[in-house]
Amino acid sequence: MGANRAVERYSDFTPLVLPDRTWPDGRISSSPRWLSTDLRDGNQSLANPMSPARKLRMFELLVDIGYKEIEIGFPVASQDDHDFVRLLIEEDRIPDDVWISALVPARDELIERTIRSLSGAPRATLHLYNATAPLFRRVVFGMDRAQCKDLAVRGTELVKKYAEKELRGGNFRFQYSPELFNETEADFSLEVCEAVMDVWEPSSDRPIILNFPTTVERSLPSVFADQIEWLDRNLSRREHVCLSIHPHNDRGTGVASAELALLAGAQRIEGCLFGNGERAGNVCLVTLGMNMFSHGVDPGVDFSDIDRIRDTVEWCNEIPVHPRHPYGGELVYTSFSGSHQDAIKKGFDDLERGAAEDGVSVDERPWLMPYLPVDPKDVGRTYEAIVRITTQSGKSGVAYVMSAWYGMRLPKELQKDFAAVVQSNAELLGSELSPERVRELFEKEYVSSDGPVGEPYVAGGRVAATLHLDGAGEHDARTIGAKLAPWGIDVRTVHRAAEADPAGGAEAVVYADCRVGGRTVWGVGVDASAVGAALSAVGVALRRGGREAAAVVAPHL
Ligand SMILES: CC(=O)SCCNC(=O)CCNC(=O)[C@H](O)C(C)(C)COP(=O)(O)OP(=O)(O)OC[C@H]1O[C@@H](n2cnc3c(N)ncnc32)[C@H](O)[C@@H]1OP(=O)(O)O
Ligand SMILES: CC(C)C(=O)C(=O)O
Prior knowledge:
By secondary structure, the protein is of the alpha/beta class. It has helices spanning about 40-45, 50-65, 80-90, 110-115, 135-140, 145-165, 185-200, 220-235, 255-265, 285-295, 305-315, 340-360, 395-405, 410-430, 435-445, 475-485, 530-545, 545-550, and strands at about 35, 70-75, 100-105, 125-130, 170-180, 210-215, 240-245, 270, 465-470, 490-495, 510-515, 520-525. The strands form two sheets. Strands 1-8-7-6-5-4-3-2 form an eight-stranded parallel β-sheet, sandwiched between helices. A four-stranded mixed β-sheet has the order 10-9-11-12. Helix 3 (about 80-90) links the parallel strand 2 (about 70-75) and strand 3 (about 100-105). GO terms for molecular function: 2-isopropylmalate synthase activity.
């Protein structure tokens, strides 16, 4: 078969028919219950399953940021998994409001051992699963529907039996998952879940978690949402059922599946931080939580130091988080391209203006920012790295860097002038220019002088200079004008909006644009005094004027 014929091996998914679906009109207005399965589904997918130290660090992170339900492993998988559960219980490391959970297949000896491993836990959920999809019934288990249902029923009976024996007096919950739910006939999933409930007999003080995985994602998120709405309508004892979902991400739509399923009636979501997990991963809990946050819905999990979360997850999983991973990737608050940088810069100007008008801090203003769905500061990032300079940048990006890093707010015409310098340098270099390099170019071009800056002296005609004063007052402006007028320089001053700390500590910055020989040349002075800064700025500008300047300006300049 030729490569182009391979597609014929695949067939479309047959969706459930639910024409009167209501989920598309829903809104997500509150956070669901979350379960982190980083220590189970995440861990079981790693080339190197987590060592006890890595597991503990992950557990502590999950607790610290606010997860209340944590699947701590598959205790019968290995001695390490078992010992970790015992360590948490025996060293009393499970906070009062946290439920641990453990997964087990529907096999007698494994259920008994798993429940024993949970002995003494203050709060524990036993999570039982068996695959219910036709492919698995035929290929993996060699079972018909009745036998498959019976496996789930027997498993639940065993859980009941061993739980009563081992966990008497403790807080115990039961969870059942029909694995491959999304590929299972809807009526059969329901039949199995009802049979499981007949055994467990859920009630208000004995609820059940029914968890519906897209074990391998195979269809559209909307199809999954229909399946969940159908269950929500048809499950009996609904008030005693927590309808949970466990999306994977094989088609890259795990987050969408989870969100649409929430609209359709799901009450609880299982996933992993940064989408770790089997194959293309489990649904990403960070993305889901931050999506809610960005709509003004509190996810109940603290993502305010997202880099710490990412660093810990990377350390525990020994897998890097992609730099473009939503919300937590290194590059997701950074723009390299000119028009994005321009819009962001204007967005920040607008934010500051609005805050000043309202007499509030910028943190209290609504976040309405081009290209940035959330304020980087809300996840512990700074503003400096929002803009990075390459050949794709323009004047606004360059101006942003000079302002955010160095407190220098360049006049618009100077921004254009300097952007051309930066552009040719970026093209020459063929790579990103660091903020330090941008500053270096600026200094070289506009601030430093080749020789001593003496008193400007115009040999013939007059030079018109517009001085943009930052950190200087009216008095300084008058003194500067008086000082330069006798040298043939007509000064017009423009005050920049007051800066608390222009140019990182200097008292004054002056941007001078001088009309020399029919063209505009810029010079910049940074000095402890406004007068000193102005003299430097004009001196540099005139010197940069080159041959034309030489015609009107005395040679010692
Ligand atoms: C979708 C998910 O993520 S499910 C979770 C998967 N996670 C893991 O498997 C990680 C931990 N697992 C393990 O350490 C091991 O697989 C163990 C300890 C559970 C079992 O180990 P073993 O019995 O030695 O081997 P193995 O996993 O190959 O056993 C598969 C057997 O269990 C059966 N089985 C698989 N899943 C289930 C289930 N949920 N309920 C009952 N039986 C099951 C298989 O049909 C197969 O039976 P067979 O031997 O009669 O053909
Ligand atoms: C055990 C179940 C919930 C699972 O991990 C899956 O189906 O992906």
